[in-house]
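ERR on first pass: missing label on line 2. Operator R.T. fixed the label and resubmitted. Corrected input:
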Amino acid sequence: MPSSRTPTVIAQATILDDLSAIVGGEHAYPADESQRFVVDGMTPRAVVEPGSYEEVAGVMRYASEQGLAAIPLGGGTKRHIGNLPSRYDLALSLSHIHQIIEHEPADLTVTCQAGISVAELDRRLRVHGQRVPFDVSHGQQASVGGVLAANTNGPSRPAYGALRDFTIGIRMVTGDGRITRAGGKVVKNVAGFDLCKLYIGSLGTLGVIVEATFKVMPVARLERSVLLSLDTPGGACALSAELHRRGLALSHVQLSGRGDATGYSWLLETRLAGSEGAVERSENEVVGLAPGSHAQPAGSDVSSTDRFSGEHFDDSSLLCRFSTLPSRLAAFIGAVQRLESPDILAEPATGILRVSWHEIDGATVLERARQIAASHSATAVVERCPPELKQHIDVFGDPPPAFQLMRSVKQQFDPKGILSPGRFVGRL
Amino acid sequence: MKRSSLIRDLQGAIGRRWVLHAPEDLLVYEYDATIDRGLPEAVVLPDDAEGVASAVCIASNHGVPVTARGAGTGLSGGAIPCEGGVVIVTTRMNRILELDPENRIAVVEPGVINLDISRSTAPYGLYYAPDPSSQKACSIGGNVAENAGGPHCLRYGTTTNHVLGLEIVTADGVVVWLGGKTADTPGYDLTGVVVGSEGTLAIVTKVIVRLLHKPEATVTLLAIFDTVTQASRVVSSIIGKGMVPAALEMMDKNTMDAVEPFVHAGYPPDAGAVLLIEVEGLKEDAQEQADAVASICRELEAREIRIGLSQEDRDRLWAGRKGALGALGRLAPSYYILDGVIPRTRLPTVLDGVYEACDRFGFRVANVFHAGDGNLHPNVMFDERVQGATKKVLDLGEEIMRLCVDAGGSITGEHGVGYEKRNYMSWIFSPDDLEVMSRLKAAFGASEIFNPGKVFPTSKGCGEVSSRMRAAIARVGADAFV
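pass 2 clean. output:
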């Protein structure tokens, strides 16, 4: 797809000299053998750490002139997502751009830079009893910009919305080094194209996200978890649907399944949040609907109640994310469960599930998993697999119906093919 | 090519009956809820996406632009064929194609009336959340084009937060799906950029909408204040305490004066402002929030608080708000509806600025607006028969937009840019920002054909020069909404 594929003849030493002139000597260096900047086994020719938007723009102008392929990186926690890069010259680290620009608690909005970690932003907002409803693992490391680029959402989506719902502005540096803004700082705004939507989930292929503005929400006064053991995924999905139908104070409903060919155990974690009266009543109703369950307070580290926290999937040999209709989720789980007994983490309300296999033949399992997905009208994305397998597959599966339009978008935003080339849908 | 051959081609593709070209028929399609005009060369009413695609191809072959039109209730001239050409009307495409209560989605055609979605899903305890005040008349296709809002968008978000997928016809006449029924679909979120693109990227032929469960309990509070400043402080205080009610609306004295003779809401004649606040959720939550809101209102010296629990009582409290704009028509021959957004903490200051500017220009203004999300709607009353009044009122509008932008806000919260505000775009976006937006338009191949003259700054005018000056002057009547 990239239209310009001139082989880069420029020497590494020259690249480092040129980048140093833009960002200062200590902020441009060779990637050496440190794993921090390796993407799917590829090591970049240089690491560059701009300290301002202008420096990001300078780096991109340089990359554009020299035809150097850049991959923007925050905390590096989602490097495993995406296709193999077709080229990788520069690791553009945003770790040094990590300030909160503006937080007016009474406006319920915050503007921060892309490199700030999710945990740090959360800590700073909680001082004011507020939060952005991110729902990600590895929050200490994961950067806000990375979360946006990868469009990482979690089981709190039905309650608090997805990134696309609470992100109201994004500042992005284009491939040719312009600092541009989409959206704004007010919660309601229809001026111009809503490019925020386009950038969320674009995986660094359209530009470099350097700043974002979010709607914030108050921290729930009371939060509690109820863990329910269930015999079947079907029972869990039906229960979840009933809880939602009743409008209970749910902030998170997640189903985890683990087992082997002889049997699976299913655990439904419902987290309740809101006023005391609402949480108490919700808890009573949940427990009433599922005798034998037990409630426990959800601490600040609620993942402790969750047997598959994000970290659990770090060493998957194949991790896939599927999205199906909620009504088909139980049947889908039933089918995928028989495929080498994977670990399963599902959101009954959205029909999204993540399925993780260990020590299997990735290519064979993936092929069968995709057949199951197709027969359940589910989309399937490989989130993690060895680079060797990536050489043979498109991790996003067959191109979506609107692929031609997506290709023109990529062409318009990145005519030189220097922004995370090859990594997106259809190897854009 | 000649107009007659354009019409003949359209008739061949869509059927004679569904192609309008007589002058008296075209007149009906030259305006929307703004009173600017633009006369199309032909109007077509296709029945499906293929018909839309044929019309787009024919227009393209004849080198004329295409403007899509739903119910024509828009407030930024989105449906007006600025540069003539073909108007594609979606009113015949008004079927609810699929209703899936279990997955809480519906697939609808663009001509479906907003409120009809909630009506047909009500038996399942579901509804479609975005509720523009024109929801009895406006179509979902128009809502998608303008990313329409409404009072309850404070809590639930605007149209974009409730659309999962779109079937569109592109500039080269291709029918293609964006997004889909599942929560996640791989690839760029093109659904998200077509929503709110004001008909400039594509024509929408099917919409997948997300439905919500109706809340268990809803409480409506109406609080009356001596001054707008007091009411603004209540708004800031509610939001500042982290409460996000379902709706938080304000009306000022001029609005109440207009409404009272019709609605007999019992607004005291010397009251300065009224807030309408709706909270909902589990009955425990709704009650607790209602108590908290009432206590803030009392603390900040509300002179009266009325509370509605039953549907009937709540409807009564809403009646004044819902009839507000229609009633305003009695106060002046014309009025100009503005739409701007500010950070909520700036409400008292900016409202002061709005009154001051209107005073200085010598116009009466009635403010009736979505206070909770800082979305102002000053309605400036004037008489367009008075020489120079229109020019003056547009200058005033520009000054008020400046106040919003200077406060860190935006030039439109829900009505759209259209052509009225396209030249204000450069106040909030740099040339580079706008250039990047134009890349998207280029990617859709839509540069010339779809709704030209809208959204982006241009030196070209819409229709005749004389009518351009009246671009934003809203039509007054009982069927006017904001």
